[in-house]
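Re: the request from the purification team.
They wanted to know what the chain is likely to look like in 3D before they choose a buffer screen. I agreed to run a prediction and write the result into the notebook, where they can find it.
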Amino acid sequence: MDRIAAAALQALAEHPFPAVKLSEVTRLVGGGVDRSLDARRLRSHLERYPDSFTVLDPMRGPWRWLLPKSRVGVRTADPWVLGQSSASPGAVGDRCALIMRDSIRWLARHLDPDSPTQVAHWCSVLLSERDARRTLVSSRSRRP
């Protein structure tokens, strides 16, 4: 694995959420490895390692026209990136959060990335996991 992909895998493993937008991964990796790294180049690095990364385009299908146009007139969405390694034994977080994280990764690995319906359902589960995590964190902070 090249150093950019290895740095991305490490950044994803250390991130509290199971999936991170490509622009955020680019920022996390670019700062420490290659300041000239852009999202397109990072994506090409990640897609060379399908056993280690999943890149999901959240806007597939007929509703793609809702996206804003880029500078070159193409409608693009910021894809989700998942590292496919399980949480390390020393990962930060409680057991429930780690299980939810691994479940989101497992679901992403077993869906058809070309199916708008499957990707939309997965995105819904991902956003629900984020809401649940926020609720768990805020309820713990209110405890006496």
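For the purification team: The chain has a mean pLDDT of 79.
Please add any questions underneath this entry.
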